[in-house]
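Box 3.1. Reading complex inputs
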Amino acid sequence: MSTTTPRSVGLVRAQTAVFESPLALECGTALPAYQLQFETYGTLNAAKSNAVLICHALSGHHHVAGRYSDADKYPGWWDNMVGPGKPIDTERFFVIGVNNLGGCHGSTGPSSINPDTGKPWGSAFPVVTVNDWVKAQARLADRLGIDTFAAVIGGSLGGMQALQWSIDYPERVKNALVIASAPKLSAQNIAFNDVARQAILTDPDFFGGDFYEHGAIPRRGLRLARMLGHITYLSDDGMGAKFGRMLKSGEYQYGFDVEFEIESYLRYQGDKFSDSFDANTYLLMTKALDYFDPAKPFGGDLVKAVSGTSANFLVVSFDSDWRFSPGRSREIVDALVAAGKRVQYAQIASGHGHDAFLMMDHPYHELMHAFLNRVHEEVNR
Amino acid sequence: MSTTTPRSVGLVRAQTAVFESPLALECGTALPAYQLQFETYGTLNAAKSNAVLICHALSGHHHVAGRYSDADKYPGWWDNMVGPGKPIDTERFFVIGVNNLGGCHGSTGPSSINPDTGKPWGSAFPVVTVNDWVKAQARLADRLGIDTFAAVIGGSLGGMQALQWSIDYPERVKNALVIASAPKLSAQNIAFNDVARQAILTDPDFFGGDFYEHGAIPRRGLRLARMLGHITYLSDDGMGAKFGRMLKSGEYQYGFDVEFEIESYLRYQGDKFSDSFDANTYLLMTKALDYFDPAKPFGGDLVKAVSGTSANFLVVSFDSDWRFSPGRSREIVDALVAAGKRVQYAQIASGHGHDAFLMMDHPYHELMHAFLNRVHEEVNR
């Protein structure tokens, strides 16, 4: 364990990397030029061997840790995991957070200006996939002079990127941490995504994706998508323990305003999200989830897909996660074992459901700490 | 077992019972007058002791079995369960199906004309609950001269009505069959309902519930509600076995049209439903689910709630049902056992999820048949 008392990385700032050469995408088109928004914490060592890439999930971004100003109400989304003395220790590692292509937090995405038209990309923005993101992240690594990552780490959709990294660039990934993830979506996973997408696509304020030019925002659809998504992030039991059947006003109102606390909570989450997130980005992120299937180019054989990897793997699942249940993580583990790879697997007891990968559950953080201690030793060997 | 080869009840017709005296509702208002649409199959015996009431679930109605004409494409919703030689044997029982108040299949509901205004009730239709439905069904029983039901039977929301019947009219229910149900909704159950409701309530074509006068139908909202509901009716494994990741056109299209078969199926279900169901009825049915909590008047004590019942109970759950999991049925069973009541419980192995209660799974139908054989013997004793 680290000897440092865990603390925040403090004040941080975002950086922008501009890429002028086209990026060929899986969908068949190319992005002529693009930029990636990213942040770094800690210091790259002289051997450039201590870099750690953190890949974000559906609604995440590059702002992983720290605050932009002392007035900031909230730190980055994984501040409990990343910082001096924390499992991803910024006194040991040079940590990179990056907003993915198609995002809405500074990297080129549907709300960015399309240089060809001078207007937001909107519906003209191409569909991007996990493969595309990994390729774009590799270019960013090149730009930063990082040949090999000590670790690529992600939860959920982020875990899919870590797995894809280990497959696409085996020589560039020493360790891959795949948390609360799955080797591909199930029919039920896709079904939930499709309801969320249909909510956005059928919102009259969506205007086929070109709502920017109409001064509109498809808030209703985005709000529904987030409410629905949120249900799948929490466990049934966790939701029961936190909200149960608690009534907003103590008694049944027999109407359609908020009746139960859980309704109030969900609507609040939906409202907040619909004010800050881009609807087209939401669509793209859910499609990237649907398309993810690293075994597909290998005839559906995940063992073959991971047979060329050379990373050490840590695969983590949470017992109350029903979005990507432990069984889904075990599919990854089984394939790695069958391919003769080094893999550690842990199923963590947590009431937090899928959201557990973002939470400060001690056994989970201790596990991450222990694994990354070994990574640190490896770096210094 | 019955000696009759199972067959259809054949051609049936719906009947209407008009009630001119007001019905006081749980919400505090009263329906001044109302009608109930119902169907009956089989013959009421001289002792009037062989009547069976079937209570419908969220999107159900009175048309339980048979066809209205030979040209009818589909029979009633529980035709596999109700008919000569079937578990609910119409050669033995006088079977009643009734559309609940607030419905959209002939009983007074939001799309009915409000006699005070000459316009559809719309937003003025009061919120109705399981208690109200049971009271209205009891009046229908009075009208038909039925003092005591040999059995009250229902699945899901229908099972809640069967349970409420046994509590509210203990002397009128000899047997209560509570299938794939729960003693109250969980926070997660309510959350799914609320997303469905918000989809309808925020549809610009909803017009606060008075869309009828605007010549509009909130199709988008109703479609989303149904798509979401449908996911919760199927099991993850069942959906995986039926659809998996099958693609509509064999290859990734990298766009927002239908990509996976599961999307095609869900959108079709949503479209079909939004063309035929009333949005206000959908809202009311989900609220009735949310409010159902027979233990509430007993300080939350379900044992006390069922302590006055005198029915024999059959409680049935399905192992792949995650909407109302077997654990929820066991809550009912545990309370009945603790109250010293006669109860049989079965957890049926089925891949059909919550929908299993409507399906022709043999162990389930054999169980129903066996239980209802005993009810039949009881009637003839």
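In summary: The longest strand of chain A covers residues 34-41.
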